[in-house]
Specification:
This is Tetratricopeptide repeat protein. It comes from Kitasatospora nipponensis. By secondary structure, the protein is an all-alpha fold. Helices cover about 65% and strands about 0% of the residues. The protein has eleven helices and no strands.
C-alpha cells in the first residue's frame, strides 16, 4: 500500500493545464539527466507502483471471477431491467473481459459498476490507469476506491474498523494479496467462447487500433458457463 500512497502523493500537487511551462519541463529534464549521468538519479515514488499495477490487476481480476457468488452476480446483471445496475455483476463481467483480452470493454463495465459505488471496480480502474501511466485518472479512481462518502457527497472522516489486531491483519493480507489472486484459475476455453460471443454483438469502433467492441450486457448462458467454471476450479 505504501507504494500506492507514494503514487498518489506524486500527483497530489496542483496540476498544470495543457499549456504547461515548457521551460520548466526542460529544466527538470536537464536536472534528471545530469543526476542519471552522475549515478545519483532515483526513480519517483510512483514508478514501482506503476510497474506492478498490471500484475496486481490481473491477480485481482482472477480472484473476483473465482468467488463463489460470481456466477449469481452475472445472472443478476443479465436479468436487470433497462438501465438498472447490478453492480457486482458489472464488476465481475469487467474482470472476465480483461482476462479474455478485451480491456476497453472491461473499462466500460468497471465504470458502470464504479458509478454505482462499487469500490472494487474503482480500484480496478485505478490499477488500469496507473499501469498506463495516467496518474491524474489513477488518483481520481484511487480516491473513489478508498474514500467513503455520505449520500450528500461529503467525505466521511477516516476511522479504523472494529477489528482486533487490525494493523497486523492488514499487513499480512497486503503481503499475500497477489498470492491469493495468482493461484486462482484463468478463464478456460468455454469462458473464452462465451465472452467472445458477447463482444461480437457489441458496437465496434472502426477507428480503434484493435477494433475491440464494447461487450453487450451478459446473459444467463454466460452465468451458467461461469458457474460450471467456478465449480471445476474450486
Amino acid at each position: 500500500m505504501d507504494t500506492e500512497l507514494d503514487a498518489m502523493l506524486a500527483v497530489a500537487a496542483p496540476r498544470r493545464g495543457p499549456r504547461a511551462d515548457q521551460a520548466e519541463g526542460l529544466r527538470r529534464l536537464s536536472v534528471d539527466y545530469a543526476a542519471f549521468r552522475a549515478g545519483t538519479f532515483s526513480q519517483p515514488g510512483w514508478w514501482e507502483a506503476k510497474a506492478n499495477a498490471g500484475t496486481k490487476l490481473d491477480s485481482l481480476a482472477r480472484w473476483v471471477i473465482n468467488q463463489p457468488g460470481a456466477a449469481d452476480q452475472i445472472a443478476a446483471l443479465a436479468a436487470a431491467e433497462g438501465p438498472s445496475v447490478a453492480t457486482e455483476g458489472a464488476r465481475v463481467f469487467g474482470c472476465l473481459l480483461l482476462l479474455t483480452g478485451h480491456p476497453l470493454s472491461a473499462k466500460f463495465w468497471w465504470k458502470y459498476a464504479a458509478g454505482d459505488g462499487d469500490r472494487t471496480a474503482a480500484y480496478c480502474l485505478y490499477l488500469r490507469e496507473l499501469h498506463h501511466g495516467e496518474l491524474g485518472e489513477a488518483q481520481a479512481w484511487f480516491e473513489q476506491a478508498t474514500v467513503e462518502r455520505e449520500p450528500s457527497g461529503q467525505a466521511v472522516p477516516a476511522s479504523l474498523p472494529p477489528v482486533e489486531n487490525y494493523y497486523t491483519l492488514l499487513s499480512l493480507f497486503t503481503k499475500n494479496a497477489d498470492i491469493y489472486g495468482s493461484t486462482a484459475a484463468r478463464p478456460d476455453a468455454d469462458l473464452l467462447v462465451a465472452v467472445e460471443r458477447l463482444v461480437s454483438c457489441g458496437d465496434h469502433d472502426e477507428d480503434s487500433a484493435d477494433h475491440d467492441g464494447i461487450a453487450c450486457r451478459p446473459d444467463q448462458r454466460l452465468a451458467d458457463t461461469l458457474s460450471a467454471f467456478t465449480s471445476r476450479s474450486a
